[in-house]
Amino acid sequence: MSNTPLQDGAVYDARLLGKPKMLALGLQHMFAMFGATVLVPAITGLSVSATLLFAGVGTLIFHVITRFKVPAFLGSSFAFIGGYATVTEMGAAQGLSTAEALPYACVGVFFAGLLYFVLAGLFGIFGARRVMRYFPPIVTGPIIISIGLILSGSAIANCMANWWIALLAIAIIIVANIWGRGMVRIVPILLGVVGSYAVAALFGQVDFTAVREAAWLGVPFHMKDTAFAVFADPDWGLLVSSVITIMPIALATMVEHIGDMCAISSTVGRNFLADPGLHRTLVGDGLATSLASLFGAPANTTYGENTGVLNLTKVFDPRVIRLAAVFAILFSLSPKFAALVSSMPTATIGGVSLVLYGMISAVGVRNVVDNKVDFTASRNVIIAAMILVLAIGIKYGANDAVSLGFTSLSGLAVAAIVGIVLNALLPGKDYVFGRNAKGDTSVNFEVNRVTEE
Q1: Distances from the Cα of 82 to the Cα of 153, 154, 283, 332, angstroms
Q2: Which one of 82, 214, 381, 382 is separated from 104 by 20 to 30 angstroms, measured CA to CA?
Q3: HSE (CB half, 13 Å, CA atoms) of 34?
Q4: ∠93-245-252 over CA atoms, to 5°?
Q5: What is the pTM of this model?
């Protein structure tokens, strides 16, 4: 990707627009990421306030590490939702509540974030081509497909609370994403949540008691909800299982990160993969994810919605993104707002997550298609078949996991390990990272995204 000049009319120094416009642009970026970011804790049971706090803090850390050059916002990653769900189910089997099991999942996400450091180091030592040949689309594609399919059951269960509310959320998202213009097309998730939430409230299906009782100001997180709480009286088997279950998900999100950096570079017209460098952006993303997980917030990822806002406004100044991060931190200090999000109807969550989970699987299909994976080759058929059958079969089998005596492995963890090993051992590897830019960057878990044409 060349270091092309900025687009006509583009602005890289928002200070030229004046402080009022800078503040307005910062708020716009905050609301662009808002719906998707708070939806992850609403689905998983994590803290909304901690999520907003570490979305803001993680974004600021990312900007420091990338030398304040990349206009990227880091919000909640959808890719890890399956990991949280799997670990809470494992915890339930041990007699733990969701609140007690989630800190174990956070430990797993912490180690997943550390994999970004490993990949950044390997990129620096061996180069992207040598490293990525072990994570080709025939491995990452089926893993991504499996993530969406594993989650599909919970989406349907939530929709069944009220199918009309769920269908309304789905309809709003589809209409906004396909036929919307300007900011409407950038924030379809937020519109779907707000629209169906409002209708549910009008029909008396929302209990606002917790909202009325919540304070306006408060602490964004509590130590009992953090990863540190695990070590007060740890279940070592569940802890190891959580780490092994969640770490493989980072294989997909790291490829997603590369795609996002390409999209932002294309939108802005500057090669951020070269300067400040992919190693810095990976470290920034990984550090933000690990830090957030320690304090009970979801994994972070660079957001396609904010890239869309960059394309819409043509204001590429990273200071505007940092303003959005500050606004997110300020919102995190309001327990009343967190209670409002937590009061979201189950059917609204179901409708929105039905779209999101389907999109995750569709992204996996796209990853395979864009890279023209050859399914006439027996090795590719075997690898894809083993990943899909192991991930789905173990998840919905009688035991839900594979027991190794000292720990248990989820279907996704087993599938990822088997897929990586088979790809490394079987002859006929033909994937070369960097040969097909479209294929290399076709991994993104957002509903809306700006891509390089």
Answers
A1: 11, 10, 23, 25
A2: 214
A3: 23
A4: 145
A5: 0.80
